[in-house]
Every structure is written in C-alpha cells, then in structure tokens.
C-alpha cells in the first residue's frame, strides 16, 4: 500500500511537469522512459497483488473448508437427538401394555387387531374360567407374539385363600395355557394386587404388578383412559388395562399412536422387568 502511494505521487509530479513545461517532445522522451519504468513497476505490483490475492483466496478456501468440517462435526453431534437417529441407534423408552381378565369373546380379538396393525406386543393375563370355550383366542394371542400370564382361574384374591386352594387356582390356569400354547406361564398377576410371597417357592412364578392403573373398567371412557396414561407415563411403566371393553380397545389404539410419537417402544412385560 505504501509503494502504491509513492508511485501515485511520482505520477502526479510528472503530470504536473508535463503540463507546466509545454515541451512535450523532449520531456516526453525523458518522461516516457520514466513512465515505462513506472508502468513496469505498476504491472509487477499488479501481478504481485493478483498473486497475493490468489494466495489469500486459497488460504480462505482452506480455512473455510476446515470451518465447514467443524460445523458438520457439530451438526453430527446434534443429530444424536433421538428424533434424528436411525431406528437401530435410538435409545428407546420401554413401556408395557398389560391386559387382564381375558380372553374376551369379542374385545380380545379386536385388541389383537389393533396391536397387529400397530406392530406392538403386549402381555395378556388370562383367567382360567375365560379360557374354556375360547381356546382359539389363547392360541392366537401366543401365535401373534404376545406374552401370556396367569390371572388365577376364578379371579380370586390369593391372600384370602388357604395355600392349597391358592396353588390350585394358579396351577389349573397354567396347565390350560400350556396345553394350548405348548409353553408354560412364568408370570402371574394376582387379582386385586395382593400376593402371598410364600407361594412363590411353591409355584415358581413371578408376580407382576403395575405402575399405572388406567381404571378403564370403572370409567369405560376413552378420553379419560388415554389422558391418564399419556399424562403419567414414563420409561419402564407397566400399564394395567382390561381387554373386556370396547372403550379399552379404542383407548389402546390412541395410546399407542400418541406414545409412539413420543419415542416410546412397546414391549412385553418381561422386557421391562429384566432388561
Ligand atoms: Zn383382574
């Protein structure tokens, strides 16, 4: 910049000389020689400027390139958000839907259709007294990949029975399930949520309670069932419902849709308990 300023000054001085003397030939010859030198210098300077500019530009591209890589890396980190991740990479919030008191001649079938449509597994705690006459439903539950548990034969309160009778309630139901599905039950949901721990060693079954009670059997109101679950649900919750009501079938369909959108993964109850 300083050089350029000096040459400008020299140029102005010569222009002034040319203007004042009024003898263009001689002056011009002398001045032409100087002017050529300056023009050459100007040319060289221009070339240097161009090279400098080109070098600067290259450096800038390189720097920008690095900056771009860094930005991309930061964006990569940001894509770790569950919504932006691939299915396999996503950290899921597991949740288990459980249905008691079935199989129901009408609504169990409808529930199976809802679950199949949504590709969601669930756990069904069956009553021995409801299995009789609906054996095909029990087979269908198992064939569709759902987990089957024991809910006693007559929906009795286990703690109110002598040990022998309590065992009978559970064992008869387990036997029926095994005959139909080829697989014994490992889980029991005690009706009314009362369990006699002394039975565990005799029966070799794992009692499964719940963390969210939808009270679907009292309200039979789709909106209140859905709202109760969606408001209270969290990771590893076990939701208690009954596949004996149309309202529960409809509520289940909505619950699955809403919670899937929030990133929940529906699993059978064993996955919540032991994984
Ligand atoms: Zn029940």
Q: Using the coordinates shown, work out and report the CATH topology of the largest domain.
A: TIM Barrel
Q: What is Rg?
A: 41 Å
Outline? globular
SSE pattern, N- to C-terminal: HHEHEHHEHEHEEHHEHEH
CATH class category label of the largest domain: Alpha Beta
Give every kind of bound small molecule, once each.
Answer: zinc ion
Helix content: 55-70%
Instruction: Outline the low-pLDDT stretches.
Output: 1-32, 56-83
Strand content: 5-15%
Descriptive report:
With 275 residues, the chain is α/β, with parallel strands linked by helices. It has two domains: 78 residues; 182 residues, Alpha-Beta Barrel (TIM Barrel). Helix content is 59%, strand content 12%. The strands form two sheets. Strands 1, 2, 3, 6, 7 and 8 form a six-stranded parallel β-sheet that branches. The protein has a two-stranded parallel sheet with strand order 4-5. α7 links the parallel β4 and β5. The longest helix has 55 residues. The radius of gyration is 41 Å and the shape is globular. It starts with a helix and ends with a helix. 29% of the residues are buried. The N terminus is likely disordered. The structure holds zinc ion (ZN). Zinc ion (ZN) binds next to β1.
